[in-house]
Write a structure and sequence with these properties.
The protein contains 4 helices and 2 strands. With 208 residues, it is mostly helical. The chain has one domain. It has a two-stranded antiparallel ribbon. Strand 1 and strand 2 form a beta hairpin. It binds protoporphyrin IX containing FE (HEM) (2 copies). The site of one protoporphyrin IX containing FE has 19 residues, from helix 1, helix 3 and helix 4.
Amino acid sequence: MKLGWRNTEKTYGKVTIAFHWTIVLLILVQFLLAVISEDLSPAYRGPMMTLHKSLGIFTLLIASLRILWWLFDTKVLRLSTTPVWQARLARLVHLLLRIIVIIIPLSGWYFVSAYRGAIDVFGLFAIPPITQINPDFGRAMKGLHILSFWIFAGLLSLHIGAALFHHFIVKDNTLKRMLVITIPHQLPRRKKATNSLKVIDFPKKFKK
Ligand code: HEM
Ligand code: HEM
């Protein structure tokens, strides 16, 4: 089965999958930059934090576009292996994740604006401040930046835990349908893989 650009009721489309994994990668890199640079000398910390902030503004853009896309895209249905309460919880966690990846970079932008003003993006151009200099407000936004990140980390643990639970315990296609694997998930899988390099047997009508 070929993946389309848009979701269908059964599969995530290429755009949703691309948004999902791009955001995962961006957040991972920003987390590492912030944490690793903490103990470095200013000569290294400066450029690393510039990269952190620049990628952060880029993440804000991508996360906003993702919400727009999600609003107009087809909604993927739950798999029959997922009980209703789990599907409801997953929907809530997905919604909170979508919102919190906006709050994290936005609070970062407010926080840097309130302390220092404009933000240098990749040394190419400057993003104007979104608020006036105000150290008290800056401190509050810095608190929100860090707090929202740790709330996000909690939600993410639940999210990854659920994905792994479905993949290894329930053994359904929840994780596979978010990967770039074009699994024919209504079709029977091979019972025994004799050669791990062989592809799944497609019924003749699916062969090109
Ligand atoms: C999704 C995007 C972002 C993520 C995941 C993220 C995550 C983090 C994390 C984990 C820290 C370390 C907090 C700590 O020291 O415990 C941090 C610090 C920081 N972030 Fe972000 N951030 C993002 C976007 C931004 C943006 C857009 C800006 C500003 C434009 C920004 C500015 C900063 C600054 C200046 C610090 C250092 C705080 C300090 O002085 O300790 N971040 N960020
Ligand atoms: C290694 C990390 C991750 C794994 C293994 C993972 C796995 C998955 C899986 C399997 C689904 C499909 C769930 C279903 O169909 O019910 C999904 C959906 C989703 N994930 Fe993740 N995820 C990860 C990281 C993240 C991160 C960092 C975010 C933060 C924004 C996120 C946000 C979402 C959202 C919002 C959905 C719903 C579909 C959408 O609108 O894109 N995930 N994820």
